[in-house]
Design a protein that fits this description.
The chain is mostly helical. It is 54% helix and 7% strand. The longest helix has 17 residues.
Length: 124
């Protein structure tokens, strides 16, 4: 697999949109960035939280998951071929188009907190 590059640190929000698929551990932030990029994802979890995100990715048909400890070259190729199917690509693109942008989420959260404060519902 000469066309695969493994790196230590990257700016996911810049790199993921340029990928055909993303493979990662399944943390909440990494999963969200992968989904927002609109590309299928393969989650290789090592703990329960990551496993739960993998289950959601499978349920939404925007990717799949496999325990990291169970990965082999054969299963990796199989999983990548699965998520690169046009159905998964289309679902990933559709989901991405429905997700809010990070700045919109922060602004919306601030609006909700301010509204609760205005109504006297914060800290009581």
């Amino acid at each position: 697999m000469d066309h695969v590059k493994v790196v230590d640190t990257v700016n996911f929000s810049a790199i993921f949109p340029a990928c055909r698929a993303v493979v990662h551990h399944g943390g909440a932030g990494t999963t969200a960035l992968g989904l927002r990029a609109g590309v299928p994802t393969l989650i290789l979890p090592t703990d329960l939280n990551q496993t739960l995100w993998g289950m959601q990715v499978k349920r939404l048909k925007v990717g799949t998951a496999r325990r990291f400890s169970a990965v082999t070259e054969r299963t990796l190729i199989f999983d990548l071929r699965t998520i690169l199917d046009l159905e998964y690509v289309a679902h990933a693109q559709t989901l991405a188009s429905r997700m809010s942008k990070p700045a919109e989420g922060v602004a919306r959260a601030a609006d909700l907190v301010e509204n609760c404060a205005r109504l006297g519902r914060v800290g009581s």
